[in-house]
Amino acid sequence: MAAKIDKELCCYCGGCASVCPFSALELKGTYVKCDPEKCVDCGICVKICPVGAIEVKGQRGENK
Amino acid sequence: MNYQKEWDVIIVGAGPGGSKCARACAEKGMSTLVIDRKQQVGPPKRCGEGLSKRWVELSGIEPTPRWAVQYIDGAILISPTGKKVVVANSKTTGYVIERSQFEKLLAEKAIEAGAKYMLKTQATGLLKDGDTVTGVKVLCDGKEKEYKAKIVIAADGVDSLVARYAGLQTTLPLTECDSGYQYEMAGVPLLDQQKMELYFGKDVAPRGYVWVFPKGDGVANVGIGVMGSDITTAKYYLDKWIDAHADRFKNASMTEINAGVIPVTAPVKKFYANGIMVIGDAARMVNPIHGGGMGATMEAGLMAADTAKEAVDAGDVSEAMLKKYQDKWQEVRGKEFAKILQVRKFFEKLTDKQMEIIAEAVDPQIMIDLGHGQGLGTVIKTLVAKSPDAAKFAMSFLTGE
Fold first, then answer.
1. Which of A48, B59, B129, B381 is 20 to 30 A distant from B355 in Cα terms?
2. What letters, b where the CB count within 10 A reaches 16 and e where it falls short, cover B292-303?
3. Nearest-CA residue of chain A relative to B140?
4. How far is residue B23's CA from residue B19's CA, in Å, rounded to a whole number?
5. Dihedrals φ, ψ of B105, to 5°?
6. Which letter does DSSP use for residue B172 in this model?
7. Structure confidence by residue, pLDDT tens digits, B50-67
8. Cα separation, B282 vs B169, whole angstroms
9. Domains along chain B?
10. Which of 4-63 (A) contact B at CB < 8 A?
11. CATH assignment of A4-57?
12. To the nearest whole angstrom, how far is the Cα of A20 from the nearest Cα of chain B?
């Protein structure tokens, strides 16, 4: 399992890593990495993402 | 550059907290290494860049035009129907800053004091001896390296993993953080060159607000914070707000896109463990009503440096020793932040109508006090006096039911 991060939308703010209860997400220098070993597809990161860049089980944040 | 492998203090994160702490540690005579995953101290910012006067003073850096780009004497709060409340007194003065320059200046001061910096260096784990942290594992230029330290300080921001590596619980609950998005824009007409503008309302920004922070010459940070658990994005609400003010923004356009998550909650329960202390956003040391954290992290950095010095001198980096840092922070800032959190929890329950009543009837000076955790009683009294149906609401808040 793994959250899908849309590199075109992602602003590399690390918000997803802040809320991930499983430490599956990590902001690297210039990208965000999701560790499929740790991710359980809970979707918490989908809600916090300020730009709707994360997709989990078909759900994404809504942009205008 | 190859630096020594053993240090008194290693600080992870070269933000305002990390560099302020580094300078203090170096000035106290401790060998100090700062590492940061980025290739440049400073950008990208995750910040509206407002810094009040007391924190500018604490920074220890003269507010020069290099970084303190716009003097601020107050704020204009705009209610859902557009009523403007101007707040201005000695507590509301400060600057909107160019944060990238500010962070660089703080790092320069730390380096002058003797600290060393390694950039493009990601902390990947902690070295431990039993349950005591004894250093950091890093990935630097694609190579794995290890650096030992008597004390590690996690200043790695809101998405801190270093504190988690030490076994500390720092996961931010969705309801306790705001999702933030911002454009730095040029060509923005302002209500007042020296005032920050804050726009409230459930449709504008659920639980949060839209801000316009002037940076001089028509440049401004136009940003938003909204409740983290909302599936609609912060970007959506900000774009909607700007579109709704199309006339104002017709000659404006963006020069930066910024995003970030803002803790608006109590700090983590424990911000130390054997051999490690956590400062700033990594420990959720953020003012829960306005989301500002630069001042609190610099202050915590100084406190952590004091405790680090004591611990290194005594050869004791145990929890019992490092707890002194948390005790100090609770005393100096924790109590105030706890009161401010109450204010936030009250305001997030208000309807737009109740917010209008407050904007209409409460003395603007009280609004300033609220940001410091005072005056909530007065606000509740005013609300109840003006709106009988608010009595039940106020009572349920006060009794916690």
1. A48
2. bbbbbbbbbbbb
3. A29
4. 6
5. -60, -45
6. P
7. 999 999 999 999 999 999
8. 11
9. 6-45+100-172+265-338 (3.50.50.60), 72-93+174-263 (3.30.9.10), 349-399 (no CATH)
10. 11-21, 23, 25-29, 44, 46-52, 59, 61-63
11. 3.30.70.20
12. 7
Q: Is B122 helix (H, G, I), strand (E, B) or coil?
A: strand
- The number of CA neighbours under 13 Å toward the Cβ of B116 is 17
* Chain A residue whose CA is closest to B181: A50
Instruction: Provide the Cα torsion B231, B235, B237, B241; round to 10°.
Output: -170
Q: Is B366 exposed, middle or buried (0-12, 13-18, 19+ CB in 10 A)?
A: middle
Determine contact, residues A54/A39, Cβ cutoff 8 Å. Answer: no
The pLDDT tens digits for B167-194 are 999 999 999 999 999 999 999 999 999 9
Contact with chain A for residue B243, Cβ under 8 A: yes
Query: How far away is chain A from the Cα of B207, in angstroms, using its nearest Cα?
Result: 14
Asked if residues B97 and B118 have their Cβ atoms less than 8 Å apart, the reply is no
ipTM for the complex shown = 0.95
